[in-house]
């Protein structure tokens, strides 16, 4: 079960002026589930996107990048689950374009004004006719307060929908931010198997939105891992409808930092929610690596810990078998690491220093912390000033079960 | 259960002239199991070693390297299971030295003539007194035909002992090679959580033995992975007693290649045995990446596939969810990879080309191959002449169970 994820209520998700969301059940892979989502944006909106770095990137990712680069005003997004339209070659590109064409026709737009997204099984042809046949339904039931339905419509192996809202005041006007994400397995830095959508009515320049999305992704979706697999389809989109009525926020505005940080907070919550709902997760771990020479080496150590199946299974078992963490630090790839200098903490408890067990450490302390649902692992390298944080979950029987059964 | 590992009989393991092996039950972690091994070597033997590259390398690894570098004639090895003597700081080094001192006293050697090895739980003090107290037993029952007992004495989470023998003829004399290995989890390139010992009566120069061990390790133990964790204690030792009666083999001898290849064959069989007995393994996979620009990029792709929990669970489930393999190829880190150029084969079946599903591919073909216990995954990058092979196993419920329960 997801780790400390509150049950979402529709009313907790605030509508964004200028954004409507509609869905359909197209039976793409399984019957009786929402699997098509259409997001419509008011005229004058700004849209920015960040995508997977996987070389085998999916057809919709290629089309999204092309449409964003065309500088057409993006006015609609179409998302399907059940099929990733990845590893589908030329015909996959045609299918992604066909779904954009069809939605553009229905909404009286150009195809370049539509962004397509797919998530699900790789290497199977997209049943694009089913998607197209259900677009009218998703247009018909479009509403501004449909965020919970929308968050449900993008789920695959997710157990719970993931979405959140924030408000802040800019120039005397209330600005609202609402976002949602999906993803549960194949989750790794440089984006996860995840789709993330964050919308705001803030008035913000295109340039400032681009700056914010890169800042926010580095602090959020690029800091999570479930299984170390980077997906073919990862996409994170920020949409600003520019309808809140305050003066435009640019990168040099006084309010830029406040808006950036509020949007980043939403992104962090959405990213952490993916880990909390990680496939089979029973624990949420924060891996914090401090006092490194640079951020890159801190991330190396954090990811070595976060990716280790041995460590993840020990957390699942609540077994303070902490030597496995030392081993991961040792193979993280810092060639000149002096292990006698570093300290390892579990929560507030000093576990290891001087290359060995801390004199003050008692296994009962470690055992108590390992039983908790949220655990902080802190590594102090004592060789510099930089730090990095990664969030991950444990590795349980259910991870194997979910991934052994996913397609059947 | 181990994948296609034959039950070992004591008689299949050939004694090596000049090598005796003795064991004891010292109750280091668990009662009633062999957990101390002493190997004695005849005067005039040559010994070479390769060790973990983990920065947190264990105390016995540090001591082994020092003793080998001292150019003392190595005459004895002492191995314990149940405790890795890793992450144990200064006192760990003292303990490793104490066990060498004790064995040296009993055998009338200098401490530098003894190599120590430990495997088991990290971050707990080594109960060195128990080891020392049981050395006389392990000396008393030493015999040349004790290889099966020895292979059992070095097991931790291994289900079966792993050992093998080969013979070849050099200069009209029969030369015998016998080796054994242990390891099952925390198995990764640059050595596994593994101990490997290979002995031969061949007459071979120290320089030639050094050349052979590096060649053999690169073709064997550095090509396997179970879970991507590189251990603190990995050690592989080659011992040549020089008693076979033929002229000394040097790197320029006519027989060098034959001897090198025979010893490498033994190393490969021992390395593959570790994967076949990988924690929870039900399948043995060979990942072969061909036609790359260089060996390094081929290894990157092979390891991305071999480390992916999503792929490993799909193999466990016999589910030809092969898009996961394309995803792994895509995130393996080849920045200029053109995915439309590569081909993916499962066994002899072409699965993917031109960035999509091969026109000839039928899922029933993939499903049939996925049911087999030994599976070949072949990736043809079509961008060069180099290749690399990695062996791995699947990821099952039992992997989680074994590692969640390991200490308890």
Layout of secondary structure:
The structure is a homodimer of 408-residue chains.
Chain A (H helix, E strand, L loop, with lengths): L18 E6 L11 E6 L4 E6 L7 H11 L6 E8 L5 H19 L6 E8 L6 H13 L6 H7 L8 E9 L2 E10 L12 E6 L5 H14 L4 E2 L9 E6 L15 H21 L7 E9 L2 H13 L1 H8 L6 H8 L12 E4 L2 E5 L2 E2 L5 H8 L3 E7 L5 E8 L3 H9 L3
Parallel strand pairs in A: 4-5, 8-10, 9-16, 11-15
Antiparallel strand pairs in A: 1-2, 2-4, 3-10, 6-7, 7-8, 11-16, 12-13, 12-15, 13-14
Helix pairs in contact in A: 1-2, 2-3, 5-6, 7-9
Cα distance spanning the termini of chain A: 21 Å
**Total of DSSP H or I helical runs spanning 4+ residues of chain A:** 11
Provide the β-strand percentage band of chain A: 25-35%
Low-confidence stretches of chain A at least 5 residues in length (pLDDT < 50)?
Answer: 188-192
Given the C-alpha coordinates, what overall shape of chain A results? globular
The run of helices and strands of chain A is EEEHEHEHHEEEHEEHEHHHEEEHEEH
Strand order of the largest sheet of chain A: 9-16-11-15-12-13-14
Total E-strand runs of chain A = 16
The most extensive interface, with participating residues per chain, is: A-B, 70 and 69 residues
Mean of pLDDT of chain A: 91
Give the class of chain A from helix and strand content and strand pairing.
Answer: alpha+beta
